[in-house]
Amino acid sequence: MDQLNLFDLPEPPPIPKRKPKLKMDADALLRWKRQIFGHQQSVRDGIGPEQPALFDFAPDRHDADAIDPFSLAPHPWEFFDGGATGGQTCLYFVTDAAEPAPLLLYVGETKRSPEERWGGVHDCRTYIGNYIQLHRDCGLQVFVRTGFWWDVPTDRTARLKLERELILKWRSPFNKECWKWWGKPFG
Question: N or C: which end of the chain has fewer CB within 10 A?
Fold first, then answer.
């Protein structure tokens, strides 16, 4: 039997180099934001008082058209550190309120409380951090905040349905359902 010589082994194939991660510049970021703002502004323009019905029934308070994320009381986006929400189930909305183009970035729902949902690992926290950092790197204004909608269905299936309707209506770019429209530049 021939003994294997450790110094006569064939050379391993070269390790492929990783492509460098591309970073948006200020112009690309502003174009991306303008596209989202255009869609969300058209949705927002559609929000308003509806014509009274022939029979004046009470409006459905769990209707996606009844919720304007931009009108909710603002909270810091790091709300999950302070326990300020009281541990209730809700829908929450992450917005960038910087003028002239406020954006809805993310729509979420909680099974228990917002702090429990965001206290551990949550991909959106990474997206928000990257989003804020890119604005700072580009010298652009950013004002990320969170709003809460407390009047949600107690049934989780109904709550998830309402969340999905809002995500698709507003096309919030940090929700995975909307990456087909806006890409995933901050993930």
Answer: N
For residue 71 the two structure tokens come to 């009108």
Q: Examine residue 100 and say whether the peptide bond preceding it is cis (omega within 30 degrees of 0).
A: yes
Q: Does residue 2 fall inside a structural domain?
A: no
Tell me the residue type at 129: G
Residue 29 φ/ψ, nearest 5 degrees:
-60, -45
In a domain, 162, yes or no: yes
pLDDT in tens, 36-90: 999 999 998 886 444 444 444 444 567 899 899 999 998 876 655 555 555 678 8
Asked if residue 176 is part of any domain, the answer here is: yes
Measure the CA–CA gap between 139 and 156, rounded to whole angstroms: 41
Let me know if residue 64 belongs to a domain.
no
The residue range of the domain holding 103 is 69-180
Residue 12 tokens read as 């391993």
* Separation in Å, CA 1 to CA 5, 6, 7: 12, 15, 18
Distance from C-alpha of 140 to C-alpha of 120, rounded to nearest angstrom: 29
- Give the residue among 93, 74, 110, 79 at the shortest CA–CA distance from 174: 93
d(CA 94, CA 76): 9
Number of residues in the chain: 187
Three-class SS of residue 28? Answer: helix
Distance, in Å, from the CA atom of 132 to the CA atom of 141, rounded to the nearest integer, reads 9
Q: How many domains does the chain have?
A: 1
